[in-house]
Design goal:
The protein has helices at 2-5, 26-40, 56-66, 83-93, 102-118, 135-145, 164-169, 175-180, 192-205, 215-225, 229-245, 253-261, 273-276, and strands at 45-50, 71-76, 122-127, 155-161, 181-187. With 280 residues, it is an alpha/beta fold. β3, α6 and β4 form a beta-alpha-beta unit. Pfam families: AAA_22 (PF13401).
Length: 280
């Protein structure tokens, strides 16, 4: 691998979300700050949306790390198959013993939430991949979001999902849930300056002490990745492998084009073959 070739302490472009390599770019920072502010104001349902690869899972993990102590967390990373399963999953996360039908389980959850509120604790549930929840489960979220005292919500819900979630919520029969989402944040793709800052931060965090990319290569990486962090990671990873394989001390256009050609989802540039084959 290229780690020793470039004198790196670790691989900077792993696809596994790593909070140690989190860089507070504007779209991610805005989503985190919006969500934390909404929770502190006592809002019931908050939505974070973003295309595949824009960093929703990493944002979710940063939210978990930054959640104030007064909040108790229930993290549901896998979509429930039904409303009843969602209730049971929430109860398990909160270590609440429940039994009976949906009405009974909801009443037991409500009583447990009231007890936590009396003890000074607010419960936050983070639901990842929310676009995959069936209508029954989304309706359950609406009903759970209605649980409240005379003055405040008993349960705060953060939905993280792909843009398909917006399409689901735009449907007429989802209007009640849609109206209860008080704050939204969107993880947009990175612009060129943000892409450069992102790559340089990752390299620096991994112990890189010299420039491995020039501006022209940054621009090619940005265009090919369309500003999607997951694609940026894949492209940089493969470009560095190609550079180390040829014993190069930095990444050139040839290595970037090889990475682009090998990456599904990357925007392919025109006339790459002459460069790839060493033609001039």
């Amino acid at each position: 691998m290229y780690q020793s070739h470039f004198g790196l302490e670790e691989l900077p472009f792993s696809l596994t979300p790593n909070t140690a390599l989190f860089y507070a770019l504007p779209p991610h920072l805005e989503a985190i700050q919006t969500t934390l502010a909404a929770l502190e104001m006592g809002e019931g349902i908050i939505q974070i949306s973003g295309e595949v690869g824009t960093g929703k899972t990493l944002v979710c993990r940063m939210l978990i790390k930054q959640l104030p102590e007064l909040f108790e967390l229930a993290y549901l990373p896998t979509p429930a198959a039904s409303g009843h399963e969602l209730r049971l999953a929430l109860a398990r996360e909160l270590a609440i013993s429940v039994e009976g039908d949906n009405t009974a389980v909801t009443e037991q959850l409500q009583q447990a939430l009231i007890e936590r509120k009396a003890a000074g604790k607010s419960v936050v549930v983070l639901l990842d991949e929310a676009q995959a929840l069936p209508d029954d489960a989304l309706e359950t979220l609406r009903l759970l979001g209605n649980l409240e005292t005379e003055h405040e919500k008993l349960l705060h819900i953060v939905l993280l999902g792909q843009p398909e979630l917006d399409h689901r919520l735009d449907q007429h029969h989802m209007r009640q849930l849609r109206q209860r989402i008080t704050f939204r944040a969107c993880l947009r793709p990175l612009d060129l300056a943000e892409t450069i800052a992102y790559i340089e931060f990752r390299l620096s965090s991994a112990g890189c002490q010299r420039e491995l990319f020039e501006l022209a290569q940054y621009r090619e990486l940005w265009k090919a990745s369309q500003g999607i962090p997951r694609l940026i990671n894949q492209l940089c990873h493969k470009a560095l492998i190609a550079a180390s394989s040829s014993n190069a001390q930095s990444v050139g256009r040839k290595e970037v084009l090889m990475a682009v050609k090998d990456t599904l989802g990357a925007r392919q540039p025109k006339w790459t073959y002459p460069v790839l084959w060493g033609w001039h």
